[in-house]
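Collaborator request, handled under Task 6.
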Amino acid sequence: TEGGGLRTAVGGTSRVSRTVVARNSAGTLGGGIASHGTTVLTGDRVVFNRATDGGGIANLTGTVSLRFTLVAFNSPDNCTPQGTISGCPH
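Structure tokens returned to the collaborator:
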């Protein structure tokens, strides 16, 4: 399973504002968030989530935009693939 907290489907758009995505888990990718579409986070916190890869956010076939959003303390990493989400520390 993907996206323990939020999963954006292919062709879909998710806009999340002032929300905490915390302590979720996924069996494969995106413990907090998995994106196959367009995901825009504004003023959020994605923290303490877990998955096999992309503990915080997995950008699978979509785009993820972070605006004033903290992504931290996720396991085993904050974002995957590394370098695909501007402003997200690996």
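The cover message to the collaborator said: "The two ends are 22 Å apart (CA to CA). The longest strand covers residues 13-17. Please let us know whether this matches your experimental observations."
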